[in-house]
Amino acid sequence: MNWRRFLAVLVARNKEFLRDRAALSWNIMFPVLIVIGFAFAFSGGDNTEYKVGVVASDHNADNPFMQLNYIQFIPVDNPSLAQTKVSRHQLDMLIDLNNNRYWINDSSAKGYFLERLLNSSAHNRYSREMLTGPQIRYVDWLIPGVLGMNMMFSALYGVGYVIVRYRKNGVLKRLKATPLNALEFLSAQLASRLWLILAVVTIIYVGTNFFVNFIMHGNYLHLLAVFALGAFSMICLGLVVAARLRSEELADGMLNLATWPMMFLSGVWFSLDGLHPWVQKLGQVFPLTHITTAARAIMLDGASLGDVAGHLAILAVMSLIFLLLGAFLFRWE
Predict the structure, then answer these.
(1) pLDDT tens, 7-40?
(2) Are strands 71-75 and 50-55 parallel, antiparallel or unpaired?
(3) Residue 74 backbone dihedrals phi, psi, to 5 degrees
(4) Which residue among 131, 153, 175 closes a domain?
(5) Residue 291, SS3?
(6) Residues forming beta bridges with residue 54, ordered by sequence position
(7) Same domain, yes or no, for 76 and 211?
């Protein structure tokens, strides 16, 4: 590794990106517009759908309350986590059919009506448990996923698409004739994109937080560490896509194939709770799922890096696999 050659490529890539004012502006404005749009759209009131977490065994399935319409019943494996969601208005009620207990938030209008429905429709008497806590706005829940999604597009297209363009235009062929080796070139591309992504994410968060005032119960450095590892993982995935492709059209198709499933199956726009178990398992194979989940835990639950260590370990393993695969497959021409 020759550090002078590495720094020369790093500086050149940074200047190329920063001089592209349109791309730079879009990287910043796109997530800002999403955040502002959703903050305005969901500021007028709650959704009308009732969400009830249910702890139940098979013989409870015929409970009359469970037969009511217009209520989404979500199976619960972790009651303590579900109670936290009730306290934050993410669930309107939690009911334990095995022990005839239920939990509602004392400031939730939906919880009040669900309690009346439960008492009027159920044959058994249920003991009442009260929870308190402020409501989590949709925009607070959304911002970690939006930042992660912006990182995904910036990493995959900013590395994968650019390297394919270099190969098609003959830039890589000319670089091959210089003393620059593949390790120095790929490392410079990775480092350039990593700091640019983190800089843009920081600008977006600080800028939108000034107007929206996001909930933040955790540590900002922990959040930055999650985004740094997540961005690194996404960049390494971009290297895999760009390793051999020569056609920009094919690269665009491959990148769309990678990004679209991640956008809809990583919990960016809606919670995966209540979806088919296979869909939830499929979502775990995407880096964006672990970035979003870990960032939400830090922001909304005040989790530490130790609490999200499982997600960080998965991201680290994914990064290593993508990096080794991308380096092995890389070709100059």
Answers:
(1) 777 777 777 666 766 666 666 676 666 666 655 5
(2) parallel
(3) -115, 120
(4) 131
(5) helix
(6) 75, 95
(7) no
